[in-house]
Amino acid sequence: MGAPRKTKLLPYLLVAPTLLFVLVFTLLPLGEALVGSLFKQRLNIPKFQDPVFFGLGNFADLFGDPDFLQVLANTGLYVVLFVPLSLAAALGLALLVEEKLRGIAWFRLALFHPTVLPLVSAATVWMFFFTPEYGLWNQALHLLGYSGPQNWTGNPALALGSLVLVAFWKNVGFFMLFFLAGLQNLDRSALEAARLDGAGGFRMLRTIVLPLIRRQTVFVTSIAFIGAFQTVDHVFVLTQGGPSGSSSLLLFHLWQVRFERLNVGQGDAVTVLLVAVLLAFTVTNFFWGEHREK
Amino acid sequence: MKKLALLGSALLLSLTTAFAAPVEVSLAYPVAVDAPITALLKGWAQDFMAKNPDVKVTLVFAGGYPDVKTAVQTALQGGAKAPTLAVMLATDVYDLVNAKYVDNLDDLVAKAPGGAAFVKDFLPAYMGNSTYKGKLWSLPFQRSAVVLYYNADLLAESKIAPPKTWDELGKAAQALTVDGGKTRWGIEIPTENPYWTFQPLAIGGGKNVFTDDVTVNFNAPEVVDAVQFYNDLSKKYQGTPAGVQVAWGSSTQNFAAGKTAMIVHTTGSLAGILKTAKFKVGVSAVPGKKAGSWASVTGGGNLYLTAGHSAEERQAAFAFAQFLLDPSRVATFSAATGYIPNRTAATATPEYKAWLEKVPQAADAVKALASAGPELATQNVNGVRSLFNKYLQSAFNGAQSPKDALDAAQRDADKALADFK
Question: Quick one: pLDDT at residue B244?
């Protein structure tokens, strides 16, 4: 009697530590944020220090605030620029470094090394690259014939692009690693057969390689998307969300609302929105990938 | 028997005293300032513990002011103990008190030997942010002011006198700019987080940007005029980059490297600038609109006692604060950093006199304080400050006219402050 019962318990025991971790550090805080988002609580205003039921008031306030709408638009643009660009570059680089050439390990290392640098240090170095008069990027612009100094992080038209550029440099090597692992596990015979049938490089990529590395693509898309939505360190170091809010992103805004303005209810509402978007994307991406698999 | 019991009790008492756990005091300090402060603080903590063996001091070095504040907030809200003392922005006082993150100091001042005289000795310009609702909440610690740094050698070579008015400042910037700024700018004003470096322009124009904790003057004609002058520096005089300018750290590097002839920056950068600049550095308050109307603005961090500590911890923390703010230590701290001495008694110490002899610019930095207005400090300060920054940058970048931008800033700030009135 006892033996089968033990067998049934074992899987639960094995996942229990992870489950506990997810429960304590993800589900409980999320539940708390969900409840908190329905209350008005502002720690720096004595009359709103204790939570008062506010219904969907925090969400209404957020969507009625032009600054928040700008943050949403910035975040959307950041994701739309960062995810496809970095994925395409990572795949391209993975295809390049997959070749068995002399010294390829050094090349891979060079592409991967930005990933291991602490982001704040990296962003500080990039701040120097963006310096208006003598920064690297302005020197590049001068070579192209542009004469005036350009303040990359101080120009509303360039500040968000500067953040994308740093994130791109920082993450492409990391994403490349997953594509590389996928490429190295491909069935060589299928590729050889296609090559003998006369398929060109692009056709092979489109019809054989990409479908076969779909799982890696789904995974990398998910982490790129989630990472893009959670971008905050670059914003702190490079732009502080400026100028005039043109590079403020969702997580940075959340930090401002919760820790600078001490608006607990609204901070919880932003958290709920952030998690909802990420959850919707991850679930859709997963099911889309699984569906295509069938 | 009685004797034996007495002896036993005495022994027990002495053992308890000998092995009693020391009172723990921690100090959270934002280390991201350009000065060798960690070594100073560590040495002083050791000295304090040597004199007070019943107290154990731990120093917690955090990144910047926001990091210290976030650490205090998260500890208190998570039900943990926050660092006993924390150096946080003087202007955060209203939020910190309202949110009950910090503790009142009045009872400790009353109990401490010489407490009242100690508090009275701080410069009045720096005490403005220490009191709220008639109570004392913090002590000025590393206090600064915004000043104009100029390359005195370059001005002398170009036969330009240090500017005394807006017009002279604009003309000097124009004359000192070389090759449209590619080789050298006349002046740079870091405006990535502009409210603070902008305030001396507003004050020099005739009005500070706020009156009290619930009243801002963002769209006062004098403030609009000051934004117009900032824009004129690039448009009319072509002496500074157009729009939002360089980052805070880059401007001091540019100045020391001779890539800009003047900068508007904090006195806290004085030691760093003097160490790297290979020319004579001049320091003055920022010239005002009219002759004689100099301007500056206070800034920097205060020492707060955080909430939730026992009577012993509070007392030990206050004793450590008094120890750190002893006149000779204040003078030593100023000499190492450029932060303006925050106590009158510090200016009479040999350390201060030695500093002035070695660094005559320090006296000019202290002099600038006489024309300083208070830093923007309101209720909901982060909300108000970030919206002011947003509209200032909008006006600097030409996205809105100065008047339109500041009218919008006033409207939004009044809304952000409505719940506090």
Answer: 84
Say whether both B246 and B135 belong to one domain: no
Phi and psi torsions of B26, nearest 5°: -120, 150
Look at residue B112 and give its three-state secondary structure.
coil
- A132 three-state secondary structure: coil
In a domain, B192, yes or no: yes
**H-type helices in B338-380, by residue range?**
350-358, 361-368
- pLDDT category, B403, cuts 50, 70, 90? very high
With CB atoms and an 8 Å threshold, state whether A127 touches B383. Answer: no
pLDDT at position B12 is 54
What does the buried/exposed string (b/e) look like for A261-287 if buried means 16 or more CB atoms within 10 Å of the residue's CB? Answer: bbbbbbbbbbbbbbbebeeebbeebee
Residue among A42, A71, A151, A264 with most chain B CBs within 10 A, to mutate: A151
Helix, strand, or coil (residue B210): strand
The residues that bridge with B145 in the sheet, in sequence order, are B298
Residue of A nearest to B394 (CA): A244
3-state secondary structure of B400: coil
A-chain residues near B250 (CB < 8 A) = 127-128, 131
B274 with B348, same domain: the answer is no
Q: What is the ipTM of this complex?
A: 0.82
Q: How many independent structural domains does chain B possess?
A: 2
Q: Is B283 helix (H, G, I), strand (E, B) or coil?
A: strand
- Tokens representing A117 are 């640098």
CA distance B76 to B308: 8
Tell me, yes or no, whether B231 and B249 share the same domain.
yes
Å between B243 CA and nearest CA of chain A: 8
**DSSP 3-state helix, strand, coil percentages of chain A (rounded to 5)?**
75, 0, 25
Say yes or no: B181 and B223 in one domain.
Answer: yes
CATH number at residue B250: 3.40.190.10
Q: Give the whole-angstrom CA distance, residue A29 versus residue A253.
A: 19
CB atoms within 10 A of CB A98: 17
Task: For chain B, positions 230-289, list CB contacts with chain A under 8 A.
Answer: 241, 243-247, 249-250, 254, 259
B66 chain-A contacts, CB cut-off 8 A? 259-260
pLDDT bucket at A148, cuts 50 / 70 / 90 = low
Is B96 in contact with B102 (CB distance < 8 Å)?
yes
Eight-state DSSP code of residue B259:
S
Q: Distance (Å, rounded) from C-alpha A163 to C-alpha A169?
A: 10
Dump pLDDT digits (tens) for A222-260: 899 999 988 898 898 888 887 889 999 999 999 999 999
CB B294 within 8 A of CB B368: yes
Q: What whole-number distance in Å separates Cα of residue B231 and Cα of residue B398?
A: 9
- Judgement on whether residues B71 and B195 belong to the same structural domain of the protein: no
